[in-house]
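Retro notes (design track)

What went well: tokenization of the new backbones is finally stable.
What didn't: we kept losing track of which sequence belonged to which structure.
Fix going forward: every design gets posted as structure first, then sequence, in one message. First example under the new rule, 108 residues:
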């Protein structure tokens, strides 16, 4: 379990040459900055959408729980929705963090 929580750095030969080949391929087309800008915009948009969905699920689960009036079935449903939303948010943020780390390692 501790291995999953500790960041691990994996070094492989050829990472910098692969990035250099991509730069060489794109350089003649004039899209050097456009690819990074477009990719960044898409990632920001997807993350904003995912954040909105998780916020909506959290609000829905909160309202469901507060209006349950002691009904155990509705409380359990609200808890399950909150748990699923928290797990989904953790997975999404982890994927974003890993992506930022890997792309940062490739640029260095």
């Amino acid at each position: 379990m501790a291995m999953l929580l500790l960041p691990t750095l994996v070094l492989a030969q050829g990472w910098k040459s692969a990035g250099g080949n991509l730069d060489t391929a794109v350089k003649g087309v004039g899209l050097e900055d456009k690819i990074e800008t477009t990719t960044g915009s898409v990632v920001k948009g997807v993350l904003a959408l995912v954040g909105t969905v998780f916020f909506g699920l959290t609000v829905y689960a909160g309202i469901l729980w507060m209006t349950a009036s002691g009904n155990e079935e509705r409380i359990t449903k609200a808890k399950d929705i909150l748990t699923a939303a928290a797990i989904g948010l953790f997975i999404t943020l982890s994927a974003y963090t890993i992506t930022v780390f890997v792309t940062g390692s490739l640029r260095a």
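Added context from the reviewer: The CA atoms of residues 8 and 71 lie 46 Å apart.
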